[in-house]
Structure formats: C-alpha cells, structure tokens
Amino acid sequence: MEAKSREVIKALIELSPNVDEADKVINENYDFQSIHEKVAFLKGMFDVQIIGREKDEPDEMTYFAMLHTIISI
C-alpha cells in the first residue's frame, strides 16, 4: 500500500469525527511506540501544546486533549 502524504494524514486527522478515529489514523500510518512519540508528532504536525504542562511528561490524557483540540478547531 502506498504511504499517504503528510498533508493527507493531517487532513484525515483534522476531519476525524472524534479522537478515537483521529488516533486510528495516526496508528494506521505511523509506528509510534509511546504516547510521548504521539504527542511529539502532534506538536510538530499541528504546532500545538498544552499550556502549563510543558515540563510534565506527556500522558494519555494530554494526548487525547491535544487531539480533541485539533479536531474541534
């Protein structure tokens, strides 16, 4: 199967109906092994961050909050 372009994956995430579907797009297209990697990906792809939690180790709640913000905009 041909790899999707970065722009296509970005659009699929942004247009996802919920965070579970957005997470599914990420899991199907990237081989991230940790929440830390997924959070770093979102920061790089969408230029987002969680204010006040910059020094905290990212957790699943941080990741899903970032995804929710991305698909809600």
What's the overall geometry?
globular
Distance between the termini: 30 Å
Helix count, DSSP H or I runs of 4 or more residues? 4
For the secondary structure, the number of strands is 0
Please state roughly what percent of the residues sit in beta strands, choosing from under 5%, 5-15%, 15-25%, 25-35%, 35-45% or over 45%: under 5%
Question: What is the CA-atom radius of gyration, in angstroms?
Answer: 12 Å
Give average pLDDT, whole number.
90
Q: Could you state the order of secondary-structure elements as H and E?
A: HHHH
Low-confidence stretches: none
Helix share bin: 55-70%
- Quick one: biggest sheet? none
Helix-strand makeup class: mainly alpha
Q: Mind sketching the topology for me?
A:
Layout lengths: L5 H9 L4 H11 L5 H12 L13 H13 L1
Helix pairs in contact: 1-2, 3-4
What does this structure look like?
The protein is 62% helix and 0% strand. The longest helix is centred in the C-terminal third of the chain and has 13 residues. The protein is mainly alpha-helical and 73 residues long.
